[in-house]
Amino acid sequence: MKCYLINLDRSPQRLEHMTTAFGAIGIDFVRVPATDGSLLSAREVKEITGPKSDEMPWTHQEVGVAISQRRCWQMIAEGDDEYGAVFEDDVFFSDDAAKYLFNYDWIRADIDVLKLETVGTKVSVSFLGTAAGSRRVHRLYSNHWGAGAYVLSRRLARKLVSRSEIFTDQPDVVLFRQPGDISAFQLIPAICIQDLVLNGHLPDTKLSSTLEDERVPLRKKNPRKPRGWKKLRRELTRPFEQLTSFATDAAQPLFGKRTLRVPYR
């Protein structure tokens, strides 16, 4: 299976990290030059983006990531293989990751996209899943953000390319927003994890996230914490929301589902 690695020309240290990581598991990769969002003009950003579902403004780096991810989708769409794997350049692999990247014979034909990483949040998945070596493949029934490591089918790649000339959401939202019209699955335990998830945001380090460098000040500038009556209402309804969440999680098995934090190992 072809593995596509997104990497900025100005991030040779990340390429070195990924070359070592792929080399350690004996898997080849194709480097996909990333679009540097910092070089995009405000006009260019405006011309290719629409309002996002989170109502936050697009950052230039986010647009660069979207363009870069789309470039990978196009390569898969135009390729000969039924599936291709996409990686950002700050991931770590499990020791047995090569078993799942060497080919795609183990991937069911009804899978549009298969998430290989975890971001550590609670997700709803099918209760049993299907065996894949020492791991299992589960249907995703809730959002699981992040687009640092996933396998994409050629048929979905063709659809995504045809409808993504204007970006209306970030790639991970497009791929893993559930419920939706995309058949998204999760490998459990995950075989990949991004440095940001594993070690947190550490500015000015070898694998520091350029996305987070832009997002942190933007969040401070546009705080989303409720105030006044909205804050009071949130505090009053919090116990009921927690009870509802607990009841929902407890009832998941009745519907062939379960809730968990996807482990990485």
How would you characterize the overall build of this protein?
The protein is an alpha/beta fold. The protein has a single domain (3-220, 256-261), classed as Spore Coat Polysaccharide Biosynthesis Protein SpsA, Chain A (Alpha-Beta Complex), CATH 3.90.550. The protein is 37% helix and 19% strand. It contains nine helices and twelve strands. The chain has helices at 12-25, 42-47, 60-77, 98-101, 154-162, 171-176, 195-199, 210-221, 228-251, and strands at residues 3-7, 30-33, 83-87, 91-93, 113-115, 122-126, 130-132, 135-139, 149-153, 184-188, 192-194, 257-261. The strands form three sheets. It has an eight-stranded mixed sheet, with helices on both faces. Strand 1 (3-7), helix 1 and strand 2 (30-33) form a beta-alpha-beta unit. It is globular, with a radius of gyration of 19 Å.
